[in-house]
Amino acid sequence: MSTIIFAIVIGAAFGAVLDRIGATNPNWIGKMLSLKHLHLMKTILLAIGTGSVLMFAGQMAGLVDVGHMDVKTVYTGVFIGGLMLGAGWAAAGYCPGTGVAAAATGRRDALFFVAGGLLGAAAYMVTYPAWEAWGLLEGAKLTLGTVPDAGYDGLIGLRGDVLGILLGLGFIAVAFVLPERPLGRTARVAAE
Amino acid sequence: MPLNWKTGGLLLGLVFFAAVLLVKPIGVSTQFVIFDAMIGDVANPDLITQTDEGYASTNAYLAKSGAKYAKNAANPLNYSFVFVLAMMAGAAGSALLRGGIGREERRLPAIWKANFGDTPWKRYAVAFAGGFIVLYGARLAGGCTSGHMMSGMMQTSLSGYIFAAGAFLAAIPVSMMMYSKEG
Predict the structure, then answer these.
(1) With pLDDT > 90 as the criterion, what percentage of chain A qualifies?
(2) CB-nearest partner of A117 from B37, B132, B175
(3) Considering the entire predicted model, what is its pTM?
(4) Which of A23, A108, B128, B167 has the most beta carbons within 10 angstroms of its beta carbon?
(5) Distance from the B52 Cα atom to the nearest Cα atom in chain A, whole angstroms
(6) Which residues make Cβ contacts (< 8 Å) with residue B81, sequence separation at least 6?
C-alpha cells in the first residue's frame, strides 16, 4: 500500500513540475529542439545532474538503496527506437510522459498524440517477435563506471558512484554555460 | 512563462531523486502497453490468463520476462500505472492553479499557427502520427525520454546515452525543418 501512496505523491509532483517547467508545452519543446531557445534544455540538464549527484552521494553515505537503481539493457534497437522517438517528439512536440500530462491539462492535440501512441504501442506489441528474431534486442545492462553492489558491469574500470557524481556535476556545469539563445539574434529577428 | 530554469531544474532533480530514493527511477512509456493490454483483454479475454505460476499471454510481448506486463495489466493498482494517473492529475492541477491553458492554445499551439497557419486538423493528424512513431520507437528502445534519457543518464546507464544520441540526432533536424518560426 505504501508504494501506491508513493506513486500518487511522486507522480503528482512529477506531473506538476513538468507543467511548470514548460515541458508539456509544445511551443517550448519546438523552441528547444530547433535550438532557438534552450531554457528547457538547461532545466533538464540541471535536473539530471542534481538527481545524479544526490543519488550517488546518497549511495556512498548509505542513505540510498543501490537496489533501487534500474539500468536498462543496451542493444541496437535502443538507437533505432531513439531515432524514431526523436523524429516524432520533434514533429508532435510531445514525448510519452509530457503528451499524457498535456492531454490532462486540456490540450486537444495531445489527446490525438496519446491516441496515436496507444496505436503505436499496440503495433509494437504485434511486431515484437520480428525485432527479436533479427537479434536487435540482445544486449547487456551496462553502466559507465562500475557502481558498487549494483550488479551491473561497468564500461570502464572507474568507480561508478564517483564517476556518477562527477558526471552529475558535469551536467550541472553544462546547464550553466549553455546559452539560452544559441542561434542568437538572427533567430529572434526571424521570429518577429 | 515557465519557471526559471534553476528553480525548475532543481525541483525536477528532487523529484527524480525522491523516486529513486523511495521506489525506483521514473518511467512512463511502458504504461501505454499496459493500457493497451487492458483494452485488449476486455475485447479478447484470452489475451491475458491467470495460471498456477502467475500470468500468461497469447501476445509474445506481454508474455516476455515472466509475463510481467500481463501481470501489471491484470492488476492496474500497481506503482507504475498509478504513477502515470497521478502525473496526469498533478499536471492538470498545476495548470489550473496557474490559471489554465488558454482556449486558443488548447485548440492549436502558437508554434503550429506561426508555421502552418490556422490548420487544427492538420495539427491533430501530425500529433497522432507523431504519437504513433514516438511510442513505437520508445517500446523498441525499451524506454522513453523519462526512462531512458532522464532516469538513464542520471544512473550513468550506457543505454540512456545511446538513446539520447539517437533521439537528438533525429529531433533537431526535424524540428529545424518544421518549425522555423517560433510562434
Answers:
(1) 92
(2) B132
(3) 0.95
(4) B167
(5) 24
(6) B31, B34, B35, B72
Counting one residue from chain A and one from chain B, the pairs whose CB atoms sit within 8 A come to 523
Amino acid, single-letter form, for residue B55 = Y
Q: Look at B2 and A115 and tell me if their CB atoms are within 8 Å.
A: no
Give the whole-number percent of chain B exceeding pLDDT 70.
100
Q: Chain A window 93-122: which residues touch B at a Cβ cutoff of 8 Å?
A: 93-110, 112-122
What are the φ and ψ backbone dihedral angles of B103, each rounded to 5 degrees?
-60, -40
Compute the distance between CA of residue B41 and CA of residue A119 in angstroms, rounded to an integer. 15
Q: How far apart are CA B128 and CA B138, in angstroms?
A: 15
pLDDT tens digits along A105-156: 999 999 999 999 999 999 999 999 999 999 999 999 999 999 999 999 999 9
Asked if A70's CB is within 8 angstroms of B131's CB, the reply is no
Strands B48-50 and A142-143: unpaired
The mean predicted confidence, pLDDT, of chain B is 96
CA B120, chain centre distance (Å): 23
Rounded-to-integer distance, Cα A59 and Cα A69, Å: 10
Q: Which of residues A184 and A180 earns the better pLDDT score?
A: A180
Instruction: Tell me the H-state helices in chain B.
Output: 5-22, 30-43, 60-74, 79-97, 103-107, 110-116, 120-141, 151-154, 158-178
d(C-alpha A46, C-alpha A65), whole Å: 23
Radius of gyration of chain B (CA): 19
What residues contact A126, with CB distance under 8 A and at least 6 apart?
B59
- Give the integer Cα–Cα distance in Å for A64 and A75: 28
CB contact under 8 A, B15 and A13: yes
- Name the residue with cell 512536440: A93
- A124: Cβ–Cβ under 8 A, 6 or more apart, which residues? B33, B61, B135, B136, B139, B140
Contacts of B42 in chain A (CB under 8 A): none
* Measured distance CA(B83)–CA(B142) in Å, rounded: 18
The residues near A65 (Cβ < 8 Å, ≥ 6 apart) are: none
